[in-house]
Amino acid sequence: MCYANELFTQVSGDKEERKEGRKGRKPGRKSSKIDMKAKLERSRQSARECRARKKIRYQYLDELVADREKAVLQLRKELEMYTQWARALDEGHIPEAALKMVEEEKRKERERLADRDVNRQ
């Protein structure tokens, strides 16, 4: 059996020797208080940075939610306006705001056509 990343190789009999993939401390190395303090400080710094990233991410999401809620309110307002226009039209009245909107759309269309004609020349 030949494996690409074999961790153990058979040396002799039942003895096995580690070939690669070593993890943990090296043999013979003693951890000093300085190393432990440095490791602890790195861990604390990493935790501070993680909390800061988390805070920024939540602020971003809160802003996103607030923007979406504003958009929903605006759309509800617009829906209510169109509902009122529909009721007025059902009663035989043409809302003034609807006439203004139609006139504005006609003006924009004329401008688009004029711009298109100018660009063709």
What are the SSEs and their pairings?
Layout: E1 8-12, E2 15-18, H1 33-90, H2 96-120
Antiparallel strand pairs: 1-2
Q: Explain this structure to me?
A:
- It is a single chain.
- Strands 1-2 form a two-stranded antiparallel ribbon.
- It has two helices and two strands.
- Strand 1 (8-12) and strand 2 form a beta hairpin.
- The protein has 121 residues and is mainly alpha-helical.
- Belongs to the bZIP family. ATF subfamily.
- This is cAMP-responsive element-binding protein-like 2.
- Keywords: Activator, DNA-binding, Nucleus, Transcription, Transcription regulation.
- Residues 37-85 form the BZIP domain.
- It is found in: Nucleus.
List keywords for this structure.
121 residues, two-stranded antiparallel sheet, 2 helices, DNA-binding transcription factor activity, CREBL2/REPTOR-BP, activator
List how many beta strands DSSP finds. 2
Radius of gyration: 36 Å
Structural class: mainly alpha
Strand content: 5-15%
Roughly how many Å apart are the termini?
Answer: 78 Å
Largest sheet: 2 strands, antiparallel
Mean pLDDT: 84
Which residue ranges are poorly predicted, with pLDDT under 50 across at least 5 consecutive positions?
Answer: 1-16
* Fraction of helical residues: 55-70%
SSE string? EEHH
With strands numbered from the N-terminus, the spatial order across the biggest sheet is: 1-2
Q: Describe the global form.
A: elongated
Contiguous helical run count: 2
Subcellular location: Nucleus
Protein name: cAMP-responsive element-binding protein-like 2
Main location: nucleus
InterPro entries: bZIP, bZIP_sf, CREBL2/REPTOR-BP
